[in-house]
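Predict the structure of DUF4912 domain-containing protein.
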Amino acid sequence: MIPPVGLPSGYFENRLILMAQSPRVLYTYWELSPGQKVALAEKSTLKLRLNKVGNGTCRVCDIDPNTNNYYFDGVDPGTLYSCDLSAIDSNGDFYPFISSNTVMSPREKPEGEAGFSSADLISP
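Done. Here is the predicted structure for DUF4912 domain-containing protein.
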């Protein structure tokens, strides 16, 4: 009999994933490698920046080094976003060390005047 194998608690990689939770909420989670965690222990501040693609940074949040996820609420529907984790030096300069994928927040309503119904999903 094969012994059961559980999922690992982490993959020891630097990853930052951004996902749309709803039209006005984005969720991000991250994993940092052990080496990255050691390097960050020397920095005093860790920031998570939300960026509108093509429009720059729209929000900056202080992050507790012991957390690994965050919700951005009040985002604009139908907009492209990305985010990055940044270390801040003593001069206040940002040093992004990991960037997320790009995601579009969903629209609140379907485009067009006709709207959308479940009947549109049924093919003849």
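The chain has a mean pLDDT of 86.
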